[in-house]
Amino acid sequence: VGLREEIGEQPAAIRRLLVEGREAIARAAAAIRAADVESVLVAARGTSDHAAIYAQYVLGARHRLPVGLATPSLVTLYGVEPAFRHMAVIGISQSGASPDVVAVLGAAHRQRVPTIAITNTRGSPLAESADHVIELHAGEERAVAATKTYTTELVAIALLSALLADDQEAASDVEALPAVVEAALEVESTARQLATERAGLDRCVVLGRGFEYATAREWALKMKELARVIADPYSAADFQHGPLALLEAGFPVLAVVPSGNAQDGLVELLGRLSAEFGVDLVTVTDRVGESRLGAATMQIPGGTPDWLTPVVSIVPCQLFAYHLARRKGEDPDAPRHIRKVTLTR
Amino acid sequence: VGLREEIGEQPAAIRRLLVEGREAIARAAAAIRAADVESVLVAARGTSDHAAIYAQYVLGARHRLPVGLATPSLVTLYGVEPAFRHMAVIGISQSGASPDVVAVLGAAHRQRVPTIAITNTRGSPLAESADHVIELHAGEERAVAATKTYTTELVAIALLSALLADDQEAASDVEALPAVVEAALEVESTARQLATERAGLDRCVVLGRGFEYATAREWALKMKELARVIADPYSAADFQHGPLALLEAGFPVLAVVPSGNAQDGLVELLGRLSAEFGVDLVTVTDRVGESRLGAATMQIPGGTPDWLTPVVSIVPCQLFAYHLARRKGEDPDAPRHIRKVTLTR
């Protein structure tokens, strides 16, 4: 079983989480509601850090909760525990083994604020250090690069949000995700073709905004890990502060731009980048016939609410990075130099 | 007056801030102390976002305050105001004009939590939207790429921390910074030589950890803006989750590694990167004779406390990016495509 199979397992993994994980997620939601939680801190590294960014937008947009991303080195390098008052602390790690993420949860636990672990590994140090454990039920992930543990992390956060608000409609939208992700997998032939045409790709920027900023970050990481592309992810806003200077004709720009008001500004920016600089634009979108996005589009199904689209929009990105890696002669199951479990302190 | 002159003006700009800005900083510190502040949110973009990261580490390490970085698009794109309870909100922007940063401050102001603007522009929209204004007194910054406004932003935050804790020793250490930055400017001939030897540099990773993560981020942005290098900044911890796959012999790795316990792990990692992969390592450090850092080092003065070192360590980075830009035939005073004031929403 390799990376490609694990990409394909995502609908089943999400379906399993929605059934087998639901009770644990409901208990975590109840704990947050019961405590006097005014803000949330999320500790995570690597791919899970992108799930943390998703949590930042979901809990911010849907619950008005300010969400901070932890700087674990304050605890591990400087020996300082933040004073967590009126906070809930969430740790995300597929392995549940990263000492720095565990250290943040441990500090929160000692201060008796609600702690939640989101992990694929029951009995892991992270699971043991938290009041509430949301197990991902993604099944063992063997490829070094995370795919199904990323999308199940997003779905765990999405269902947590739905149950936190006791929002039946939102919960139904979450339940619909396995079928939508299944449909998104059908983009594979397009993803393969676009990747094959770009065998020389060795650098790019990746743009996304709002909920899709997490997708841009995760796409960039997959490009680095799998296809050894130096990929620089940016929110469309920050991109205009400087990195714009990098552009020239043919410069590869990858962008995640599903439908939605929040994305209109990015579509406009991309149209300008194509017209003014002649960049090589590759997009993930459900917009059909949007000429400003050019021809190299990987289409995802429409109709998913914007806050859930990141679960779907990452799928073509995973497939694009996978096929580019193969085209470039890299082994997508075992990228150079990196290990599945990274024990950072 | 261009970028090079503005780099050289930094000691004078910091000195001016410490005199002319002190009262405003003391008032802001008093306001935070008087309010029941349990955490802080910082809103910023571009270079100022790196000052925000510095604030995250300084307020976290010295005051145990959890500090979050705002996601302004929640306000501007999704129309949702975070519920700011027991928080202080800081906006940082040299121009004070960025509508999204102003929007976050405006929301906080309406909710009557303490708001602080750190800006070089008196009377700017950001200044007008805050309870307390810390003016940078850096003088007009004409070059598109920010230098003296960045270091004065850091010093404003550092002095805010010293006064918040009523810590005389810390305040004295801050007062010493102009002379240390002056001494750091003497590295220029080395920076020029190292840059000139790397005229073909078009990609790199930039590593820093803890307080110096902000420096790594800002160095990477300067490399993009000025020298059109695709530069990927990483904390040493996140770097091991994936991007490590990019490395190969001769791959340029820039790193900021002053003395201090918190940096020992990074020095060890860099030694391993050199030994195993034969990367091309360029470092900023005060460690003399640390063989694991190789020969291409830009030396900064020693003796500055670790929490203040980022004010000093960025100086060789600015000079390296400036000389690389010149060597590559770019105009460091007016990088392609970007403007001094970027109005993102």
Describe this structure in words.
The structure is a homodimer of 345-residue chains. With 345 residues, chain A is of the alpha/beta class. Chain A has helices at residues 3-8, 10-20, 22-34, 47-63, 73-76, 99-110, 125-128, 148-164, 168-175, 177-184, 188-196, 213-227, 236-239, 261-277, 309-327, and strands at residues 39-44, 67-69, 87-92, 115-119, 132-135, 203-208, 230-235, 252-256, 280-285, 297-299. The first copy, chain A, is built from 15 helices and ten strands. In chain A, strands 2-1-3-4-5 form a five-stranded parallel β-sheet, sandwiched between helices. In chain A, β6, α12 and β7 (230-235) form a beta-alpha-beta unit. The longest helix of chain A is centred in the last third of the chain and has 19 residues, at 309-327. The radius of gyration of chain A is 19 Å and the shape is globular. The two termini of chain A are 30 Å apart. At the A-B interface, α4, β2, α12, β7 and α13 of A face α4, β2, α12, β7 and α13 of B.
How would you sum up this structure in a few lines?
Chain A has 345 residues and is an alpha/beta fold. Helix content of chain A is 48%, strand content 14%.
Strand order of the largest sheet of chain A: 2-1-3-4-5
From the helix content, strand content and strand pairing of chain A, which structural class follows?
Answer: alpha/beta
User: Based on CA inertia axes, which overall geometry of chain A fits?
Assistant: globular
- Proportion in β-strands of chain A: 5-15%
* Largest interface, chains and sizes: A-B, 69 and 69 residues
Ends distance of chain A: 30 Å
Oligomer: homodimer
Rg of chain A (CA only): 19 Å
Return the average pLDDT of chain A rounded to an integer: 95
The counted number of beta strands of chain A is 10
Biggest pleated-sheet summary of chain A = 5 strands, parallel
Which runs of chain A of at least 5 residues are low in confidence (pLDDT < 50)?
none
Number of helices of chain A: 15
Q: What is the H/E order of chain A?
A: HHHEHEHEHEHEHHHHEHEHEHEEH
Helix-residue proportion of chain A: 40-55%
